[in-house]
Design brief:
The protein is of the alpha+beta class. The chain has 19 helices and 21 strands. The strands form five sheets. The protein has a seven-stranded antiparallel sheet, with helices on both faces. A five-stranded antiparallel sheet has the order 8-9-13-11-12. Strands 3-5-7-6 form a four-stranded mixed sheet.
Length: about 500
């Protein structure tokens, strides 16, 4: 445990072991960027030592931070990033490099557990619209709210509206293969991004070609979507955009059972009806979010819908959706619950409320095909509640497909006597992922793997993991890009924890 000022560092990193000639490295970076764009100030190291990984809030309350970068830089041009990566590779030993958006990721993906150079992308902030092609070319440092505001002013929208909209960047969306609240209408990032520019770990600049569609071999640039800063630094993306919708409308229904609501939504989507927003709240979350605003919600599950597009299309989609909901025991509640959702959808105060009271708290989002959806919900809730010290496990469904659904679980608990909060935190996380994998689900839907789930990466991908590690070795031979994430060994990915996972080598249940 390294002492720095008033804070303790919760990781095993000695900067002098990696950058023994720190003054020389700083001098080189200043030549590339200019003096004002390189910092080793203590306050900057603290600021860039964490993202919005929720357990790090508890660390902060305890006077700790997860990690420190050794140097923070603010490049303004792609060629500067290329020079930084070339230098980091040539240095003996090679220097870790971590790209940084706005630090709103919730899985520790930007935590610099090996130290190194933190590359803040905020100066990559250009936006260019091609109205004829319905595309926009966007720097990956562009803030999400700034982007949507710019689109609205010009009569368009990209439609990627995550809960972190006000505190996240396009680069973060690409890095985690993110999904926004309106993904039912506008798609997820793999649907939105059409081409990109990336600086490879060895310094080469690669810009993929934009086209509507082609059959010219494998789509190489797809490997950077969801790579979480481990395969290079994406500097620019070309995305598809949409006309600003003519009409927006909402409706809501309560259901007696989760399966009833799942059936109604599945039939709707499989009929090619695509509400922009669909959300199912289980009974505990219905009480928490709608208990004081909707009397019909007592002992029921709330489901809300938002529709966007041309007026005729919105009216048609609302009609068919209502028919399917009524068919599966739904009861209409009108638009008031939807209005309440709009008023509160960016409110994340719970993530800060619980920490001061010693509560361990986090959220886990996973995905599952329809035929196992109800089973997965029950399995994950049961697995979490079986952890000694766990007090709550609830869930809602936030993204849907013709083939399946994304569940978003919330857990909280109080550590047992003499138990470290990180141990309980890991046990709850392991329980959630174990229950997901046992039912055939994916360990992450849109937050990414980060530090929380790196230890599950090999089980998640099976034989594919061999190919992923080969790609990593080919593109990043010296492992400088965000080390300790995705492709790391289990122990390396957990080095920041003071307690090891409750699982030894494999999750329980025979996986």
């Amino acid at each position: 445990m390294e002492e720095k000022g008033d804070l303790k560092v919760n990781f095993d990193h000695d900067p002098h072991a990696v950058i023994q000639d720190l003054d020389i490295v700083i001098s080189k970076l200043k030549k590339i960027l200019g003096n004002q764009w390189v910092s080793t100030d203590y306050i900057d190291k603290v600021a860039y030592g964490k993202d919005y990984w929720l357990i790090s809030n508890q660390m902060t309350l305890d006077g700790k931070i997860p990690a420190y970068p050794d140097i923070i830089v603010w490049p303004q041009k792609t060629h500067q990033i290329a020079e930084i990566l070339k230098y980091a590779n040539s240095h003996k030993p090679p220097i870790p490099v971590i790209p940084y958006g706005e630090g709103s990721g919730v899985v520790g993906g930007a935590v610099p557990i090996k130290g190194g150079i933190m590359v803040d992308m905020k100066h990559f902030d250009q936006i260019t619209i091609n109205a004829e092609n319905m595309t926009a070319t966007i720097g990956t440092g562009v803030n999400g709210k700034v982007l949507e505001r710019y689109m609205h002013e010009h009569g368009f929208r990209m439609g990627h509206i995550p809960q972190s909209l006000h505190a996240s960047t396009v680069g973060g969306y690409v890095a985690h293969r993110a999904a926004g609240q309106f993904s039912g209408k506008y798609g997820k990032m793999e649907d939105i991004v059409k081409s990109l520019e990336v600086v490879l770990p060895t310094g080469e600049i690669v810009k993929s070609k934009f086209y509507p569609r082609a059959s010219v071999g494998p789509i190489v640039d797809r490997i950077f979507l969801g790579s979480e800063g481990t395969l290079g630094i994406v500097t620019e993306v070309t995305c598809r955009i949409w006309p600003f919708p003519e009409k927006q409308a909402g409706s809501s229904f309560v259901f007696p059972t989760l399966q009833d609501s799942l059936n109604a939504i599945r039939e709707t989507l499989q009929a090619n009806i695509n509400p922009a927003v669909v959300r199912i709240y289980d009974k505990p979350e219905t009480v928490r979010h709608f208990g004081s605003t909707e009397k019909k919600s007592k002992d029921k599950l709330m489901v809300i819908f938002v529709f966007e597009g041309s007026s005729r299309l919105v009216d048609l989609e609302m009609t068919i959706t209502e028919e399917n909901c009524l068919k599966h025991n739904g009861e209409a509640c009108g638009s008031r619950p939807v209005d309440h959702w709009f008023e509160t959808r960016f409110n994340v105060k719970e993530s800060s409320d619980f920490g001061p009271y010693g509560l361990v708290f986090d959220t886990v989002e996973v995905s599952i095909p329809w035929d196992k959806a109800n089973e997965l919900y029950e399995a994950v809730v049961q697995e979490i509640l079986a952890v000694p010290g766990a007090l709550m496990a609830t869930g809602h469904a936030s993204h849907f497909y013709p083939t399946g659904v994304c569940f978003y679980f919330t857990f909280s608990g109080v550590p047992k006597k003499n138990q470290d909060y990180l141990e309980l935190y890991n046990q709850c996380w392991d329980a959630a992922v174990r229950g997901t994998l046992l039912k055939g689900g994916a360990a992450s839907h849109h937050h990414g793997m980060g530090l929380n789930r790196t230890r599950w990466m090999q089980l998640e991908h099976g034989e594919e993991f061999i190919l992923l590690k080969r790609i990593k070795k080919l593109l990043d031979p010296n492992n400088i890009m965000n080390p300790g994430k995705l492709f790391s060994q289990r122990e390396e990915g957990s080095v920041y924890l003071t307690q090891r996972s409750s699982l030894d080598a494999k999750p329980k249940g025979g996986l």
